[in-house]
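ok so dumb question maybe but i'm new to this and my supervisor (M.) told me to 'just get the structure for MFS transporter' and walked off. so i did the thing. is this what she meant?? sequence i used:
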Amino acid sequence: MPAAPSAFRMPPALYALTIGAFGIGTTEFVLMGLLQQVAGDLGVSIPAAGMLISGYALGVCVGAPLLTLATARLPRKAVLVALMGIFTLGNLACALAPDYLTLMAARVLTSLAHGTFFGVGAVVATSLVPAERKASAISIMFAGLTVATLLGVPAGAWLGLHFGWRATFWAVTAIGVVALAVVAHRVPATAGAGTPVRWREEIAVLGRTQVQLALAMTVVGYAGVFAVYTYIQPLLVDVAGFAQAAVSPVLLVFGAGMIAGNLLGGRLADRRPTPALVGSLLALAVVLASMGFVLHSQVGMIVFVGLLGVVAFATVAPLQLRVLNQARGGGQNLASSLNIAAFNLGNAAGAWLGGVVVAGPLGLTATPWIAALVTVAGLGIALLSVGIERRGASVVACAPAR
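this is what came out, is it supposed to look like this??
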């Protein structure tokens, strides 16, 4: 007799993907705690240093579709191991970069592996569990990102403060070596295996309106997060009045919120995926707008940095599950990878928009308000998608039987 769903245990291979996600998540987010150190050492402005985050995100957007299509007929495990190798070499190049342009190029090289790893990893993760646990499997893999923010980013900020920002990238390189070994050892050779999909069939999924809307709501909805979080260090230091040494502990609060929100989003999406999708985006917009009222309060900023972590990652599993569900029947690898690219395009757009706001007449303190408006637009796309889906279901239900 099969075990009850509540007694189901996630397979060890899923946690191997989590470790890989931890390594990639650390290198993606770690610069947010190092902006001032990198800017000072390389002789560039803080907005220019912020573009290193945007450059990484844009590299994800390019690498995700290209590498996914190029590796579509290869074993999924081999693809994941190769991507971790690219990630490790890219971080080594970051640690050795002598100037800003070289660091940007190394960041882009590292980013090429990101989208395909998470996209293919999400497909592999959902293949390891029953249908009713797919969103939770996605959230467990993405827990690597949340733990990276909880531990990796604050630790990276501490290393950068005491030993220089290059020490942080040496540490991330070491994480990459460990992650590569764990993925190679624990992920089954047959994980995610299925009938190979031709690249034309993968691309064809992009013609579906609902897939397009799912990708758009990820880009726009998530851009609001990074319009604020990219500039969290100057917000905490220059506006709220925290000391530099306090940045790492406050980022720990954000990371703790991300872990809670990620797991919560997975559970809610397993039970009611559409309400979880709409509700998480609404909550994100509310928290971003409310943060604008507490920027000068240290206690208020600690509370809302934690809340931002919760609502930001409560959206991840519902958004990823949405695009996987809309791409059923072929092209899930590409759609899943493109949704990771969509997260990072939102990252890049948010970092760019935040930089425009910081450099313009509105200034740093306006970033939460602008971010909230952007996320509201993403919520509008989600509501449009749900409305189209329900109207389509009503037409099918009302069609006469033949």
